């Protein structure tokens, strides 16, 4: 009798791979955590986790390293989504590290984004996590493209891109000694367009700032800077009220919106399919996101 083989769509194949990786983490790691910020990539990760483990509970808590300077719409969404799923959410803030003295800002206006590495390593030590599951994608920038699916970190939380384990035939090794850590990236092979297509297919809710809305901004050195208490207009700058959306969400001090009228998933898909500027290239305000800087930050423990 002939055997029929279902042909997986592109999204089905990416989802199946991500489910497989999450189950490998659950099977091989004693105490993992899933990084969840409320952003679009981590929203997709939650749906993958649902498909991997429901009707049971997730075999890991959700963990967010908060700079204390995130957009309120995103934080509200984060809390509501975790509560809706009935999953444990652990939040640790860079402000906690500042109070402990393990993070010292050069000046009050310095971006806290790069200091998340310290807080993450402190949370890993506090809870004894042996794996953190992240939503990083290889198309974000070149340093992330050097990651393995199971990315090894030594006992100091450091990443050496020249000392990573082979992953032939999709065989993943997440075994570590006490104090060492794995960063697992189930959607590593997804692109920004894949993420939006998956959000559309699964009808996933997102923070409202991902969709076009009116916001006061100034134009500064080729970037669009949102006007907030943390990012006020400078003398001589002209404040405009324009329609924008965020392609990525993060610390207010280093996350910029893009001009857009896309107020629906379909319109965002159309924009994403035709853009020639990378997600991070279009939306990061800090000077820490060049390939060399990002690679150095990852070596120090960044996501």
What are the segments in which pLDDT stays under 50 over at least 5 consecutive residues?
Answer: 287-292
What's the gyration radius in Å? Answer: 19 Å
**Biggest sheet statistics:** 6 strands, mixed
Write down the CATH topology of the largest domain.
Rossmann fold
Widest β-sheet, arrangement of strands: 3-2-1-4-6-5
Tally of DSSP helical segments: 9
Query: How many β-strand runs?
Result: 10
Strand-residue proportion: 5-15%
CATH architecture label of the largest domain: 3-Layer(aba) Sandwich
Superfamily at the CATH H level of the largest domain?
HUPs
What sort of overall outline do the alpha carbons produce when their principal axes are compared? globular
Question: What class would the helix/strand composition place it in?
Answer: alpha/beta
Query: Residue-averaged pLDDT, rounded?
Result: 86
Write the layout of secondary structure elements.
Layout: H1 10-28, E1 32-35, H2 40-53, E2 62-66, H3 72-85, E3 89-93, H4 94-100, H5 116-127, E4 131-133, E5 150-153, E6 181-184, H6 192-202, E7 213-220, E8 223-226, E9 240-245, E10 258-259, H7 265-274, H8 279-283, H9 291-299
Parallel strand pairs: 1-2, 1-4, 2-3, 4-6
Antiparallel strand pairs: 5-6, 7-8, 7-9, 9-10
Helix pairs in contact: 1-2, 2-6, 6-7
């Amino acid at each position: 009798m002939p055997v029929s083989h279902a042909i997986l769509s592109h999204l089905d194949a990416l989802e199946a791979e991500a489910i497989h990786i999450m189950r490998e983490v659950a099977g091989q790691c004693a105490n993992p955590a899933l990084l969840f910020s409320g952003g679009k990539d981590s929203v997709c990760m939650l749906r993958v986790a649902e498909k991997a483990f429901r009707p049971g509970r997730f075999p890991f808590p959700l963990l967010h390293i908060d700079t204390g300077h995130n957009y309120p719409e995103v934080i509200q969404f984060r809390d509501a989504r975790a509560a809706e799923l009935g999953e444990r959410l652990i939040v640790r803030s860079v402000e906690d590290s500042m109070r402990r003295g393990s993070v010292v800002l050069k000046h009050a206006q310095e971006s806290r984004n790069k200091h998340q590495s310290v807080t993450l390593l402190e949370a890993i030590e506090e809870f004894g996590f042996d794996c953190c599951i992240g939503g990083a994608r290889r198309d974000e920038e070149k340093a992330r493209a050097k990651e393995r699916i199971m990315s090894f970190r030594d006992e100091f939380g450091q990443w050496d891109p020249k000392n990573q384990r082979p992953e032939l035939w999709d065989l993943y090794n997440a075994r570590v000694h006490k104090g060492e850590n794995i960063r697992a990236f189930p959607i590593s092979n997804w692109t920004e367009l894949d993420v939006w297509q998956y959000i559309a297919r699964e009808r996933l809710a997102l923070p409202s700032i991902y969709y076009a809305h009116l916001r006061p901004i100034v134009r500064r050195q080729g970037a669009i800077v949102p006007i907030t208490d943390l990012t006020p207009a400078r003398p001589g700058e002209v404040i405009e009220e324009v329609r924008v959306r965020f392609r990525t969400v993060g610390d207010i001090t280093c996350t910029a919106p893009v001009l857009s009228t896309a107020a629906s998933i379909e319109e965002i898909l159309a924009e994403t399919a035709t853009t020639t500027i990378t997600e991070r290239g279009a939306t990061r305000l800090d000077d820490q996101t060049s390939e060399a800087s990002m690679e150095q930050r990852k070596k120090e423990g960044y996501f």
